């Protein structure tokens, strides 16, 4: 039986763990890169319902797997030149930023459970969020108002972002919500090396002149361009009128916003405060340091990242127990040659994290066939 992982915030109140500044190593959807010029605290009038009926919406029942990240790894394997790790303790972790944000917020979460598939393949650990029963129910029972709230967020981005640094936004057209631009980062959290994709809103270009991305150049030149730029995160929120709304904003929203931004090396969040009819009337700029400061009564960054670090350690320990039981102690020093090994981690508020060894990759494949057959062929096996 695998050990449990407890999540109470008091267990993770030590000093902030060692976390390297995230390094950009790639990009996904470069044609969708956008720019933000009008950053500042100001009054505006953005109608988020404009052309809402003609928007190209993202499917509400979308099953988010690792496909985009896996395709990136396949296409850029030789350029990235990752070493093949024999030891489980050094295994590289691949996932999306959303998963890390969800895990990091767990010590303060009191409503939404989560479920995460863990796959060990060729010495790498792949983590992928799976839908809980509650999430499936929510997707199947989304109201028109729920869908409208989601679309309002995309429309706000259209009011704020443009296709080039010297152009103005063009909100008077329907939104295509399926367009995404993502950066791929790598970093170290204590002893863990993580590679993750993060959807980005736009490059900030109000401080200094910014040139357009050098399309057609080799990937290293484009990565250098993207690494030198400051990105901004865009959010919407209902006007805060009452003390309870302010408390909820500081207790819940700021925590998630801070984790998302910190993991993507973003310093600035712009929030559009709207009324119940979808009219944004005020823009407010939040440096992420301020978010943590105004919310320190409710959550602490060190607790979030200490738990994230402990979670990654727990994943490796659970894999180690399964590998030792199935293949013996020596297999832990040759994990690159093991057959695919999988686990399922589940958590519900008020409970410790539970682990199951019965995750079935065949019925719910996280790694697609082409990736399984072709990834890792360029690895150099360490001596």
Automatic annotation (TrEMBL):
Pfam families: RAI1 (PF08652). Its EC number is 3.6.1.-. InterPro entries: RAI1, RAI1-like_fam. It comes from the Eukaryota. GO terms for biological process: NAD-cap decapping; nuclear-transcribed mRNA catabolic process. GO terms for molecular function: metal ion binding; mRNA 5'-diphosphatase activity; nuclease activity; nucleotide binding; RNA binding. It is found in: Nucleus. The keyword Nucleus applies. Its cofactor is a divalent metal cation. Residues 42-322 form the RAI1-like domain. GO terms for cellular component: cytosol; nucleus. Keywords: Hydrolase, Metal-binding, Nuclease, Nucleotide-binding, Nucleus, RNA-binding. Its main location: nucleus. Belongs to the DXO/Dom3Z family. PANTHER family: DECAPPING AND EXORIBONUCLEASE PROTEIN, DOM-3 RELATED. Decapping enzyme for NAD-capped RNAs: specifically hydrolyzes the nicotinamide adenine dinucleotide (NAD) cap from a subset of RNAs by removing the entire NAD moiety from the 5'-end of an NAD-capped RNA. This is Decapping nuclease.
